[in-house]
Model the fold of this input.
Amino acid sequence: MDIWHIRGGNRLEGACFVQGSKNASLPIIAAAVISPARSELMNVPQLRDVDASLRILRHLGCTAEQIGNDVYIDSGPLAENAIPHSLMLEMRSSVIFMGALLARCGEARLSLPGGCQLGRRPIDIHLAALRQMGAEIEENGGEISCRAVRLQGTQLHLPFPSVGATENIMLAATAAEGETVIHGAAREPEIAALGEYLRRMGCRIYGDGTDTIVIQGHACEPELSYRIIPDRIVASTFACAAAAAGGDVELRGVDPEHFSTVLHVLKRAGCDIMCTKRSVRVRSGGQLTAVGDICTRPYPGFPTDAQPVLMAALLKARGRTVITENIFENRYRQVPELRRLGADISTSGKTAEIWGVDRLRGASLTATDLRGGAAMIVAGLGAEGETVICDDGHVTRGYEHFDSRLRALGADIYLEH
Ligand code: UD1
Done:
């Protein structure tokens, strides 16, 4: 059990390097298996999910190791196409191995994924698309087995721009005969990152980052290196922490475009935001103004993963903020915990209404999920007195050295394992 101890009230000052993106790293690690190549990945965060995906690669017969923030993979010796339940359970993104293994082996066996408890997380869009490409898929309880003697390129129309489904299709399509076109694809920066990695592998892919992605071809490069993009959700979290606690923080190594919607909201709330190509400076007097309505949407809309941390930053913002969560059905699990700090939040279905309070007081909380736990830390930094958060390993799934990075900015926080 991780226990976070936070004594709120310190302003955050200084510069902070933002880690590489977890959600870009995981599909790229899975993508490494599509052809027998050696990949060197840089700027990979040291996180449990990354470790879990490297263990999946080793189980499949590949060599895979992480040294600091570099990951070295040799997928030449891959010898397996089945992933045991215990490894699948550790993270939801393991479902991406379905498309990757289909591409490499024409066969994949795995069980339904684990991950955060954010409500129903079906994979029907993934399965329908792979079936349309010619895969035969059998579902038996939680077990899925897919086979395709030859995948066929085709025109796919996604009913919703699912990030995971778009990634799975891109991977499978690298081995398909002919051209695959994904209409209504997800446009997240992590999709464009996967596209770039696949191009370095020698695949022909166009349009990633737009809603129409064309995949024409096969990997052929035996060696490649790729630097993982910065984590826009971690960057958003630090920006929200500076906004909530007050201070002057420069985020380095980020791409401000990737989280401009979050920065825009913080600006409306009264923060000074200054961007260069690779950095963002957030200045906040600690007293914010409510921002009216915020709706989460697929990229380039406001990201659902930043919703809990933004909510935490606005708990003391003067006036009323209304959040509408459109992506996940159960993404307000942090709310009852934030209320224990004195927050005035009411929820009804997809919406949460926040009335800014004058002060928050430290309390004992329980982390509910990855971003919900991060939200509690952000709120604790802006609360008076001590906040203690019991956390069953949620927050460290997504944040590398979160406590020491916040401490370096002046926060009074420590993590007890
Ligand atoms: C990814 C991110 C996650 C982020 C989410 C939305 C990773 C590892 N995770 O998750 O942090 O919150 O994008 O930005 O990159 N859906 C279906 N059927 C499907 C697939 C999805 O109904 O086959 C629904 C989901 O239940 C959910 C919504 O679509 O309500 C979004 O899911 P999706 O975009 O697929 O998210 P993930 O790839 O799981």
